[in-house]
Every structure is written in C-alpha cells, then in structure tokens.
Amino acid sequence: MRWKRLTGRTVAGLLTAGLISAGLLPVTASAAEATDLARGKTVTASGSHGGYPAANANDGKVDSYWESNGHPADLTVKLGADADVQSVVVKLNPDPIWATRTQDIQVLGRTQDSTAFTSLRARAGYVFNPSSNRNTVTIPVTGRVADLQLKFFSNTEAPGAQVAEIQVFGTAAPNPDLTVSALSWSPSSPSETDDITVEGTVRNAGSAASPATTVNVSLGGVVVGSAPVGPLAAGASAPVSVEVGKRPQGSYTVSALVDPTDTVVESDNTNNSRTTASPLVVGQSPGPDLEVRSITSSPANPAVGAAVTFTVAVHNRGTGAVSAGTVTRLTVGSTTLNGTTPAIAAGATANVTVGGSWTAASGGATLSATADATNLVAETSETNNTFARSIVVGRGAAVPYTELEAEKADYQGTLLQSDAERTFGHTNFATESSGRESVRLNSMGEYVEFTSTAPANSIVVRNSIPDAPGGGGREATISLYADGKFVRKLDLSSKHSWLYGNTDSPEGLTNTPGGDARRLFDESHALLTETYPVGTKFRLQRDASDNAAFYIIDLIDLEQVAAPSSQPSGCVSITTYGAVANDGLDDTAAIQRAVTANQNGEIDCVWIPAGQWRQEQKILTDDPLDRGQWNQVGIRDVTIRGAGMWHSQLYTLTPPHEAGGINHPHEGNFGFDIDENTQISDIAIFGSGTIRGGDGNHEGGVALNGRFGKDTKISNVWIEHANVGVWAGRDFDNIQELWNPGDGVEFTGMRIRNTYADGINFANGTRNSTVYNSSFRNTGDDALAVWSSKYVKDQSVDIGHDNSFRNNTIQLPWRANGIAIYGGYGNKIENNLISDTMNYPAIMLATDHDPLPFSGQTLIANNGLYRTGGAFWNEDQEFGAITLFPQNLPIPGVTIRDTDIVDSTYDGIQFKTGGGLMPDVKIQNVRIEKSNNGSGILAMGGARGNATLTGVTITDSRDGHVLIEPGSQFTISGTPNGARAKR
User: Fold this and answer.
1) Number of CB atoms found within 10 A of residue 189's CB
2) Residue of 199, 296, 694, 700 with fewest CB within 10 Å of its CB?
3) What single DSSP character describes residue 20?
4) d(CA 883, CA 127)
5) Exposed, middle or buried: residue 736 (CB in 10 Å: 0-12, 13-18, 19+)?
C-alpha cells in the first residue's frame, strides 16, 4: 500500500474528526456544505413528448418523468443565481420494469452574467440500471453557474431523453439578498384627512454588495408608490419612505416589495416582500362626505337617437348633514347635465333628477356623475365624489373606458401607416395597429400626449417594444406625465408578443427570433393614485432611463375605476382557507378548498378580495375515479365573486407546458373548469402563455373551460395572455355520464385581450347562450365563435343553435375572424362593432372544421365593420369583410341587414368557392363604402347560390359595385345605386 504524506493541516483535521467522534467537540454545519440547489427551481426543456413536461423532472417524484421529443434535447435548471456546483444527480424510476439504458449526456452551464453556455463535463454515456445503481447516476462537475443544462444526444431504450428527477448539488456563490426587514406607517392611527407615509427598512442579507434598485409599496394589493434604494454592502440596511397620500376609510393590507422588476440577481429571490401582520386601519373623519351610489337612465336601453334622462343617487356617508343646493353633475359624451341636490342627513341618500336629456349615440357611452361638482362642501374625502358606468346604445359594447388613438394625439415621433393591402405577418407594425396607424418613439424625449375626455384613475397602454435577442421577451419602462408633472414609470413587456415564422399554421410559429414576426403588440395597465379630471394631458415619454431600443404606441384606454367592492354578506374569503395576497406564493390549494366548500354547501359563496393571488393549477372537482388524462370533472353549484376586475386578480407565472400535473394539457394550469350552475364575477385571470402550439406543442391554456351546463353566468371578468379565453363545451367521449352542453350560458362585461387563439367559443352543442356587452382585442383566432362540432352525444339534437352575440366590440384579431359561425341554426350576430382584422373577415359563416350542417335561419344584423378582411393562406386567399364559405355543405337561410361595411381591405361581402350551395341570401339596408382592393360584393368563380339586394348602397369599390366572376353559378337580383352586376 502506498501511503500519502500527512500535512499538518491533515493531521489537525484527523485529530479534530477524532475528537468530534468521541463527543469532545460540538458538531457545526459547514458553511460550504453542498445542498440540492435545484429543489423547487424552474426546469425548462427544448421540447417535450406527450404528457411528459419538463416540470416532471423536478416535482420530487420518481414515478413521473420528462421525456423529450427527439434528440438532441436540452433540460435546463434555473438556479436563480450563481452557485458553485459539485455534482449533478440524474434519476430514473427505480422500478425494475424500467430496462437498463444508456443515455449520452453533456453537462453545460452559464453564469448569471452570461448568455452562452459552456461545457462543464464532456459528452459521455451514462448507464441507468434499476438493479445495480437503482437508476441513479451522479456526474461530478466543477464550475460556477446560474443555469445548469443537460444536453442529451441518445437513449438506447427510447427515442427521446428521459429524466425522472434532477438534482444539482453545490453551494451558493456570493450574491446580494434583498429583504424588507421592517414596515410601518405614520401617523399610526390615521383618518381619511391625514396624509399617510409608509416607512420601511431594506436590508441586504446576502454575502455581496447589491446595486441600486427600488421598493414598491402596496395597499390592499395595489401599488401606491415607490422609493429608490441605493447600493447596499453585504449586511447593510437603508431606510425607505413612501408617501401614499390620503386614503378612504377602511382596512388595508400593507406590503412592500424590493427590486420589483427583478433587476438584481440575488441568492434568494423569494424573500423580497414583506406584509405587515396587522392592517393599516383608516378611520372616518368627522364631517359630511358625499358619494354617488348609482345612475339610473330612462329608458334603460335606449335606441339610437332617443332622448335619455337620468337620476343620480347621492349618498352622504359622513357624520354631518349637507345642506340643500349642491350641484350633482352628469356627463355623457359631450353632454353635461346638472341637478340641484336636496339636503342630505348623515347616512341618508337622495335621488337627484338632473335637468335636460342626452341624445343616445350608437355604441353607447360612459356615464359619469359627480356629487358636489362645484365644491361647495368641505368633505371628509374629496376623492370619492365620482361614479361611472356604461350605457349600451345601438352597436358595440358600452365599455367603461375611453379609448384614445396615438395617431390622433399630439406626438413627437414617427407616424407609422400601413400599406394599401395592410400586409400582415412580415413585422408590419402599422398593419397590427388600431386604425392601421401608430407612433414610434426612437429617441430620448419623444412622446405621445393624449387629452382625456372623461375623469380617469387608470391607464392601459397598447404598445410594442423589441424582443430579447434570444427570444422570450424583455421588460422596459416608459414615463407617464399628467399635465407636465411626472406620475410614474409604466412597466412594459414583450414577453407575450413576437411570434416568428412564415407559416400560416399557428402551431408552426415559434418564440425563437428569426425572419418575419407577427403578434407584435401587447398591453400594460396601471391603477393611478388619484383621479385626473377631464382635459388632463397624459404624456407617454421616452426618458433617459427608458432603455428599450424603440417604443411603438398604438392607443391608450383611460378609465375611472371604482374602489374595491366590499365582501358580500354570506361570502367567505379565500384567506380563511389560507390564501395570502401579494406574497408571490401559490394560492391554488386555498382557492380550491374554498370552492370545494361552496360546492359542498358548507359556505354560500367564495370571496376573492382585492389583491394579487397566484394560481398554478386549474380549479376543478377531484375525480374520485381518476379517469386519467383528458378527462376532467368541472365545478358546479358555485358562486365566486371578486372586488372588481382591476382589484381581484388571479395570475400564473408558470407556462402550462412547464407546470406539470395538468389533467387536460390543452386547458392549462390556471382559471376554472366549469360543469354547471356556476357564477363568476368581478375578477381578472391572467395567464402566462407565450405561444399557441409551436416550440413542442407549448400552449397558453384556457381561462374558463368545461361543459358549462345550465344556469352558468359569467360577468365582468378580465382575461389576458391565455391561449383561449373561454371554451364552452366538451367532447361527449370525455366522461360520457357527465355530458352536459352549455344551455342558457351568459357572458356580460367580459374583457378578453391578447390571446393566442379564440376569445369565446361556443362548441359541442352549446345552445341558447349569449355574449353581450363585452370587448375583445388582439385575439389569436376567432374573437367569438359558434362551432357546432360533431363530437356530441346525439348529432340530431346536440346542434349549436339559438346563440346570440350582441353589442360587443371586437378589435384587431391577429388570426381568423371577428365573429364566426360554423354550422347550426337560429344563431344571431347583432349590434357589434368589429375593426382591423389582420387577415380574415369581420364575420364569417363557414362549413370548414367539419361542423354539423347549417339549417334554419342565421341573422347578421346592425353591425359596423371597419377596415376588415385580409389575405391569408400564403397570402393567396383574399377574404371579404363578410364572407360565406360553404366547403361542401350548404349555408342556407342567411340574412344580412342594417349593416355598415367601411374601408374593407378587400371585398365588402364575399360568396366564396367551396362546393356548397348558398341559397336565398337576403341583403337589406346595407352600406358598403370603399372596398380598397376588391368589390362591394363578390361572387367567386366557383360560388353557387343566389342573393337578393334591397336598399343596398355601394360606393368607391376598386373592382366595381358587384362582381360575379366567370364560371360562377351564383346569381344576384336587385341593383345597388342603380348599377348592374357585372361578370
């Protein structure tokens, strides 16, 4: 035996070890003791096969696994910060059923400051044997990395790489660790008339200095201010102070979050927030306080041109009486109406009739009423005098916000305008802009300045900033000013935009940069800390710290958002079941417990208070029979209420393909699965999807899905960044005994934005159901659709019928139609506004997608269609604003009436070649103006059927009023403007 020479240090070590084993010295943990750094961290993959996502490789279970969709394949563990790694442990299921296999693996890593991976361990074959090594391989590595990657080249027993669990052992490298170590406020017991200051302490608990950053302070889950935090040495602390102003009476959760945009790389990124154990309680100050409780209109649903009068309910929530003579003012559009308010005792309410009337305008308007409009009364709070609501008139949704276009504002920047054919899919910003125009800000100091036309305390900005060089998006800020005074930085992101590829197939697009891009815009929103009056000049300006390469501003929405609603009597909060607002931790289990309690009759309804609540798994009913993937049981007999879509927000951070544990892969890991009799209102559901199906069938999930059944009503729900907003219907073979198609389902006040596929789809026999007074923007497929699919129990009965899409506003579908109906009967499309479709019609009736046939009547009435239609399918097929496409099956019984079709990209109305018949189409009182690259009405060469025109006006069409192509078997009777159809 060869003996090593023992150094003094070695001898001392052995002596110490001996003393420890003899119990003579205390045992202390080594600061450098290796731990599993991968536990609980995000794992991503270059691709996944079937139901074996990357998240399975880090879920603590060896009986689930990740499998790639071929070789080579990458599996990456994101440690969050630099660490000195010592080994990687790769596990497969130790069950003997797993045959011995060899996987060819290389280990790579990159530091937190790097973008490129470097090799830590050269490619080698590793044998996984359940009998000898129990299917566990340990690979020694040495290096400092923040992301560790395994690259697989082959697997002797499978076509893809396989990993049941991955562990990364090492020690954290020196890094800062920012925490909020103290949080309080002054005065300690404020009233509504006191200006409140929140004070805290930020500490760097890490082992390295931290750079400068910021801290955000939130009250009730809403960010109300921020403060700078200077550089901090390891172990150092700094005080911060944020003035949050006066607050209405109530109880507020107080929290602070340091480094809110995650710009500082930390050893622990999960401990940046602090929430006080006790809430901030704001007491009522003595004195009067007027507020508007409601606005009543007569008639309630006026026709266009009707004279409408109003009554305003003014409540005195204060402790002192208000004398008669104050002014109650109501504004609607450009009309201002005043009423004289009687004396109101403390706690009493007076109904004030305002003088005069308003002439109802098409599309409706926002009603805004203000108590004590001339400021005669010194009130406890001067910030709660205004109340706003919508009134629906004629076409479109009566949205509660005012939309302002960048190109119509004052700006210092570059105006972008689309080409004549509104070409889509080739990184065409103007084509994807509302009105086909937007403004680009390239240089510091450039801006867009909007003048408000209604009071507002919130803003939504539709914008585009560049993608990250390697894809995946980036964040940037833009500066918001009001009347020249800086208000705050707005956070913008390109994470959910920028899809690449030349294909028209959504599953063929990718998040990886290269070549042409589309879906270029996304939206950012913010609640402001005060209400800004009519006439305020809101400026979005590129300042020195706003560091995106460019900013494209399309439009803004300004809205007067009401204060959070109070918890209804009988509702039980999800906090009772363990949910904690704004802490960044997953609240799914608590939300599920609350919903289950409601479903079981233990509580009357579920209350989601104001705040941000993280949800990483779908809320449904546990299937006691565990019938496997694709088979889900939804919730029923449940009521879920929130404090308002701006206030009660569910969100997910994990893209569905990384979440794991999803029973139905297409439906994702967030939102609700609904079977019957479910009411959901006044919440927001924000997904984390970034693609529809490309990059390995990664999907963005569905916010609300299921059978829906009877008595389901959804109102005032904001959905964003999902694959699909709502999919109503399930295939019959998905647990046949639970078959229960949607019947009488109602959606109102929906706000669906920035999806990768449909907005709301009525599928699988949905009938007698309605979408009303809702808005849709930037959907990746049909904003609204009826798909009378064949995957039903009885094809003679379970037909999509008597559904109605009424008074909706649809903008900028970036793929497919504004509204589509595929088969069925008795369906209606009425009073909608549709604008700026990228490549498909505003309205399409079609028999592709293999639906059950059309029969009976289909009504298209009183719609306004602006700048719609486009070219698709290799840009070879040009679609009209309204298109009928009978692919093999007929489309009978269609009436198109009382509709305006303006500024179409191609034809106004198009009868398409498809083989099926389109008999007896009635076109009545329709105005077609300016078909830019087509005809007013076109019957294609292979079209079959006939149409009758009555009261049709067509002007300024490039290819003539009515064009029947040679070979067409379609006839048109009646002449627009005295012109004849031509062939």
Assistant:
1) 11
2) 296
3) H
4) 60
5) exposed
State the average pLDDT over residues 381-406.
Answer: 88
Cβ neighbour number for residue 493 with a 10 Å cutoff = 16
The amino acid at residue 353 is T
Rounded Cα distance, 372 and 338, in Å: 11
Pairing label, strands 273-275, 254-258: antiparallel
SS (H, E, C) 357-374: CEECCCCCEEEEEECCCC
* The pLDDT of residue 548 is above 80: yes
Span 324-377, pLDDT tens digits: 999 999 999 889 999 999 999 999 999 999 999 999 987 678 899 999 999 999
Structure tokens at 144: 């400092």
CA distance 86 to 108: 13
Cis bond upstream, residue 302 (ω within 30)? no
d(C-alpha 618, C-alpha 40), whole Å: 20
Residue of 634, 636, 703, 620 lying closest to 666 (CA atoms): 703
Cα 21 from Cα 638, distance rounded (Å): 61
Q: At a CB cut-off of 8 Å and minimum separation 6, what does 919 contact?
A: 890, 892, 945, 946
Q: Is the pTM of this model over 0.90?
A: no
- DSSP labels for 463-495? EE-PPPTTSS--EEEEEEEETTEEEEEEEEE-T
Distance CA 864, CA 835 (A): 8
Structure tokens at 222: 């809403």
Residue 282 in contact with residue 190, Cβ under 8 Å? Answer: yes
Strand ranges (E), 317-435: 326-332, 335-341, 349-353, 358-359, 365-370, 386-391, 401-405, 410-412, 414-417
User: pLDDT value at position 913?
Assistant: 95
Helix (H, G, I), strand (E, B), or coil: what is residue 576? helix
Cα 609–615–621 angle (5° rounding)? 95
Instruction: Tell me which DSSP letter residue 407 carries.
Output: G
Cis ω on the peptide bond leading into residue 568 (within 30° of 0)? no
The pair of three-digit structure tokens given for residue 558, joined into one six-digit string: 């300004």
Single-letter amino acid code for the residue at 336:
T
Contact indicator for 856, 825 with CB cutoff of 8 Å = yes
d(CA 62, CA 95): 9
Select the more confidently predicted residue: 222 or 574. 574
For the ranges 86-90, 222-226, 910-914, the lowest mean pLDDT is seen at 222-226
CA distances from 347 to 191, 292, 294, 314, 692 (A): 18, 13, 16, 11, 53
Q: How far apart are CA 260 and CA 257, in angstroms?
A: 6
Q: Which residues of 536-546 are buried (b: 16+ CB within 10 A; e: fewer)?
A: bebbbbbeeeb
Q: Which residues contact 724 (CB under 8 A, 6 or more apart)?
A: 700, 701, 702, 703, 705, 755, 756, 757, 758, 759, 761, 781
Distance from C-alpha of 367 to C-alpha of 382, rounded to nearest angstrom: 20
Residue type, 384: N
Phi-psi category of residue 333: left, alpha or beta, with phi > 0 → left and psi -120 to 50 → alpha: left
Give the CA radius of gyration of the chain.
31
Per-residue pLDDT tens over the stretch 641-661: 999 999 999 999 988 888 877
> What span, in angstroms and rounded, lies between the C-alpha atoms of 236 and 501?
49
CB 704 within 8 A of CB 672: yes
In a 13 Å sphere around the CA of 453, the CA atoms on its Cβ side amount to 16
Q: In 3D, which of 502, 505, 560, 510 has the Cα closest to residue 533?
A: 560
Distance, CA of 260 to CA of 475 (rounded, Å): 12
In a 3-state reduction of DSSP, which class is residue 870?
strand
Cβ atoms 729, 705 nearer than 8 A: no
Q: Give me the chain's average pLDDT, please.
A: 92
Secondary structure letter of residue 818 according to DSSP: S
Strand partners of residue 819: 784, 843
